[in-house]
Design brief:
Structural class: mainly alpha
Protein name: Phage terminase, small subunit
Shape: elongated
Largest sheet: none
């Protein structure tokens, strides 16, 4: 029998179900505009950072844990746009990595329904006591 997948990995991979969550991972929300990393490769990447950070902050999707992934997303965006602007074509691997990252942040129409905002109060599960005897 295979061991169960840890809850944190289910959350990260997007396969966690709300009705089965027993623990939750909470990273602090970003509330002030972070400065773009110095290592972003070009102006396209910095512009993408400056475009996406306010959008993600407004929707409570940007946390301390997501900053490095966002920086990599912006870096890939910058490299892809740079290649297209010089007449070159990015590799399939670059496009695939970029697509995976924008889906992780809910930046496509399909992935928007799968990504939930962080913060705020969690609603109690109305079915949490099903099958249990009410305490007197």
């Amino acid at each position: 029998m295979r061991p169960r997948k840890p809850q944190t990995l289910k959350i990260v991979s997007g396969t966690a179900r709300n009705d089965r969550l027993t623990e939750s991972v909470k990273f602090p929300l970003i509330v002030d505009m972070p400065v773009s990393p110095d290592w972003l490769p070009n102006a396209y990447a910095v512009n993408e950072w400056n475009r996406l950070v306010p959008l993600l902050m407004a929707n409570k999707l940007l946390t301390e844990g997501a900053l490095s992934a966002l920086a990599i997303l912006c870096s890939l965006h910058g490299k892809i746009v740079q290649l297209y602007s010089t007449g070159d074509t990015p590799t399939g691997h670059m496009i695939s990595q970029y697509r995976n990252l924008i889906n992780d942040f809910g930046l496509t129409p399909v992935s928007q329904g799968k990504v939930k905002a962080f913060g705020g109060e969690d609603k109690p599960n109305p079915f949490a006591n099903n099958g249990k005897h009410p305490s007197a």
